[in-house]
């Protein structure tokens, strides 16, 4: 049996508690409804919810009578610190968001939109389902329930300013195209490799720009973290994805051989792509890949980067390329294991995708793990019609577990959800990774450019695709057994401590 820590299962007590809490806060929100529609396991959750309503009503009355009127929530005292911590890096002049959320005057006109975006958990852009799958992440930027509550109470109370003396000291503004890893405290990269730039006219077909770059290394070095970013802020508007493939000098171990999609897939393009070693894949809204301690990517002298940059015209001529920042392990601290980037397909046979106009559609894909494997992260990848994606592991003993689920995918945000070291799921060889993908080609999808179009598989932004990008570390039998034993003993200690 594999061990998955930090898991909540549907219809568990955890959902009951959170449902009651949300009801009390007046926040029963739409995304659960969406999840019910798209994911059968949520049917139970819905029945549960209906039966819990009565309990919740009683409880909320108890709470109301037990507590005195809550103090007024103000911008200066309560909301500004939250915006500083969770919103302003993007919501400031010269960053990527459409408006600033720094001063009261900036934020006040947006109060209603802010309420809507935070209760539906669209903002900050962290869209992973909170009721199912692994729940512990290294780069979680979401609001806590208490923060959501404060913002909602602020708006519902008329969005008052309060006493400006209560404001926290202002945070320095970042006005450049910063590395997300620097923002998160990892320091600047040891190495930056830039691709040449491309000038995209205002109107043009999509372009796949594939230049090469040298890697200035004279000895083998291991990467412990990588991040790609467009070379300037405007570039973030036209560069949809950027992949840095490693062109090998002489390193067959860098090629992933630990997964298989079935005999019919061997000549398939996606399958070949999966075997080419990739230093990193980046897409709109993604941050960095941070490998687990003692794992990483080995780069040998003489290897090159082959870029694959998907560029989309946006009505304004923009010149930009990509650059990759590489954070290296120190000499003498080299890791033991490689991490392989794999695109787990959500489409059976790779390319058979048929999304009629004005309809919802669903596909699924299966990949076998030929080795014991640890999954480091989850990054759903779609184009404009993507709606939901679920990664499920079907174990050799027939049992299955949901690894991660995102019910309200948004094309602008290919967020990378990086599991904490002790929560990263580990599975025995023979496990099937089952990726289910749902598409919304109706008017209800705000990103849909034209619901009257048929959509098929393809590389253009107006075509569709679905896969889960996951960094995988393969484990020998001993390593696998040792990790399982370590997690079991930790779980039992935690349980004992709790008793
Ligand atoms: C990682 C960057 C980022 C963070 C962090 C972030 N936002 Fe945003 N926000 C954006 C971008 C970009 C858009 C426009 C695209 C979109 O709607 O997804 C946006 C859109 C919005 C909108 C909709 C504006 C409109 O035109 O209707 C609201 C409201 C909003 N954000 C509020 C917030 C709040 C409140 C927070 C913090 C709790 C936050 N955002 C955190 C980047 C961010």
Tally of helical runs? 11
Total individual domains: 3
- Low-confidence parts: 5-66
Distance between the termini: 25 Å
User: What share of residues is helical?
Assistant: 10-25%
CATH class call of the largest domain: Mainly Beta
Shape verdict: globular
Radius of gyration based on Cα positions: 23 Å
Average pLDDT rating: 83
Comma- or semicolon-separated keywords:
binds heme C, 3 domains, Jelly Rolls, 11 helices, alpha+beta, six-stranded mixed beta sheet, 499 residues
Short characterization:
The chain is an alpha+beta fold and 499 residues long.
Structure description:
Helix content is 24%, strand content 28%. By secondary structure, the protein is α+β, with helices and mostly antiparallel strands. The strands form seven sheets. Strands 3, 7, 11, 12, 15 and 16 form a six-stranded mixed β-sheet that branches. Strands 17, 20, 21, 24, 25 and 28 form a six-stranded antiparallel β-sheet that branches. It has helices spanning 13-24, 30-38, 42-66, 75-86, 104-107, 111-119, 145-156, 180-183, 235-238, 269-275, 477-498; strands at 7-8, 133-134, 191-194, 198-200, 207-209, 212-214, 221-230, 239-247, 259-260, 278-283, 288-290, 295-299, 304-311, 318-320, 322-328, 337-338, 340-345, 354-355, 360-369, 372-375, 377-382, 386-394, 400-406, 417-418, 426-427, 432-440, 455-456, 466-475. It has three domains: 2-68; 75-166, no CATH class; 204-482, Jelly Rolls. The chain starts with 6 loop residues before the first strand and ends with a helix. A hairpin with a 5-residue loop joins strand 22 (386-394) and strand 23. Helix 1 packs across helix 3 and helix 2 packs antiparallel against helix 3 (42-66). It binds heme C (HEC). Residues 86-87, 89-91, 96-98, 110, 113-114, 117-118, 123-125, 141, 143, 412 line the site of heme C (HEC).
């Amino acid at each position: 049996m594999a061990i998955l820590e930090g898991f909540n299962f549907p219809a568990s007590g955890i959902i009951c508690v959170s449902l009651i809490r949300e009801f009390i806060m007046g926040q029963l929100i739409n995304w659960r409804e969406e999840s019910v529609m798209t994911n059968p396991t949520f049917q139970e959750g819905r029945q549960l919810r209906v039966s819990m309503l009565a309990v919740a009503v009683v409880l909320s009355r108890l709470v109301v009578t037990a507590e005195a009127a809550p103090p007024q929530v103000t911008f200066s005292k309560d909301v500004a610190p939250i915006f500083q911590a969770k919103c302003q890096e993007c919501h400031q002049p010269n960053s990527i968001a459409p408006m600033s959320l720094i001063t009261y005057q900036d934020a006040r006109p947006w109060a209603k939109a802010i309420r809507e975006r935070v209760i539906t958990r669209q903002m900050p852009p962290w869209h992973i389902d909170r009721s199912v799958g692994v729940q512990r992440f290294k780069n979680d930027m979401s609001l806590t329930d208490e923060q959501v509550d404060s913002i909602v109470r602020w708006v519902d109370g008329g969005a008052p300013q309060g006493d400006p003396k209560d404001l926290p000291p202002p945070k320095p503004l970042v006005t450049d195209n910063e590395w997300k890893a620097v923002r998160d405290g990892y320091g600047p990269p040891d190495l930056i490799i830039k691709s040449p730039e491309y000038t995209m006219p205002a109107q043009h077909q999509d372009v796949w720009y594939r230049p090469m770059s040298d890697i200035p290394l004279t000895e083998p070095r291991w990467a412990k973290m990588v991040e790609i970013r467009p070379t300037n802020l405007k570039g973030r508007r036209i560069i949809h994805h950027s992949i840095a493939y490693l062109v090998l000098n002489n390193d067959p171990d860098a090629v992933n051989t630990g997964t298989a999609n079935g005999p019919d897939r061997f000549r398939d393009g996606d399958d070949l792509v999966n075997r080419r070693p990739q230093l990193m894949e980046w897409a709109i809204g993604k941050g960095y890949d941070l490998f687990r301690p003692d794992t990483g990517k080995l780069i040998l002298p003489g290897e090159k980067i082959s870029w694959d940059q998907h560029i989309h015209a946006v009505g304004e001529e923009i010149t930009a390329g990509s650059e990759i920042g590489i954070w290296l392990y120190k000499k003498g601290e080299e890791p033991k294991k490689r991490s392989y980037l794999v695109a787990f397909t959500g489409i059976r046979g790779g390319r058979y995708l048929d999304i009629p106009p004005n309809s919802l559609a669903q596909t699924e894909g299966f990949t076998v793990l030929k080795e014991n494997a640890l999954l480091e992260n989850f990054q759903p990848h779609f184009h404009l019609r993507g709606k939901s994606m679920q990664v499920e592991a079907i174990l050799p003993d027939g049992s299955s577990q949901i690894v991660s689920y995102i019910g309200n995918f948004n094309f602008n945000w290919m967020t990378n959800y990086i599991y904490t070291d002790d929560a990263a799921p580990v599975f025995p060889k023979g496990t099937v990774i089952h990726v289910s993908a749902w598409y919304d080609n109706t008017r209800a999808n705000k990103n849909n450019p034209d619901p009257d179009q048929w959509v098929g598989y393809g590389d253009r932004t107006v075509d569709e695709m679905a896969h889960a990008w996951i960094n995988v570390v393969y484990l020998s039998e001993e390593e696998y057994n040792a990790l399982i034993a370590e997690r079991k003993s930790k779980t039992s200690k935690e349980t004992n401590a709790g008793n």
